[in-house]
């Protein structure tokens, strides 16, 4: 058995010392330096894929209701990512369903008001208007209806207590907007019924992205050439949502990636290795766009893509799934996981960097935890600290991925692809 690596040191640095690190922030730049320097020390050839994100930061979001405001009055509100600044005093209108919203838009009752969206409209974050990865006609309709009806501001109600995971994260959504937790949403709905004519005040003190210069960021690549062009891509993202230290999501994945570089750099495997630390999985989709633009032409050389996101939760087990591979791929993986009986096979899930490969026909593996993304009290929350991660489970992922790499290293990139019959 290989010696256990101290992978928690990376988690503690990224999530403990640095903390929340959305692309474009100084903390993100510090995380970039740490990952780059740690990868470089293993002897990999370093490259980077630059991009820019909007220069946005928010100094304050204040919601005032019946003369009360602020967290001491349980009126917490948080500006949505890249929201324009505002200082709006207006009556509320409310919509819980697409039909509610359509009726309000038709009657002209949204213009100049503060629209409170809840229930079906804000159960999950709305997919951005020009999202390059997913396109949801329903979310497009909601976004466009709001932009055309032109309310003075939008308040999105997160259905969970103490949770302001943003419901709008979209540079093309040009109406000022903020997210409130469930109890604040309930107070707003009571207010709309009982004090319909009394205006509510929403103030967002934030940078206006139309007036600020974009901020530079980059993905980090650590390359090890093989004796032929075929390569295996290993990846994790190091950025976070707003307000979360992101230990489980995804300092743990990066810790495993750094551990894999330590174990695999310098080894003669035949195929090449590409270690990818993605810089923007959470907020601006630049992982997908920039990587495909720069490296997409080389997808034909990739034997498999292996992504680690949300691994090693101490209250669960590591999980594995695969996408876009043929039966031989699944059989090869099953042969390896047979030696890791605690690792659970789960259904395919697309919500992370492996999809960039899988959606383009590259056989892909995704590793996560059995606790799943449905822990809303933890996912993208301030409580996502190193407490939740297990060094043993991080090492299990590293051991497993090393074994997968050893199994796939001498295969041709065509060996595991789903064959497409010419028409
Ligand atoms: Zn993640």
Question: How would you summarize this macromolecular structure in one to three sentences?
Answer:
The chain has 423 residues and is of the alpha/beta class. 29% of the residues lie in helices and 22% in strands.
Name some characteristics of this structure.
423 residues; alpha/beta; Aminopeptidase; Glucose Oxidase, domain 1; 8-stranded mixed sheet; 5-stranded mixed sheet; 10 helices; 17 strands; elongated; binds zinc ion
Secondary structure: elements and pairs:
Layout: H1 8-18, H2 26-40, E1 45-53, E2 58-65, E3 68-69, E4 78-79, E5 86-90, E6 92-95, H3 98-107, E7 114-117, H4 137-149, E8 153-157, E9 177-180, H5 182-194, E10 200-206, E11 215-224, E12 231-237, H6 247-264, E13 272-278, H7 286-295, E14 302-308, E15 318-323, H8 327-337, E16 344-345, H9 354-358, E17 364-369, H10 391-408
Helix pairs in contact: 1-6, 3-4, 6-10, 8-10
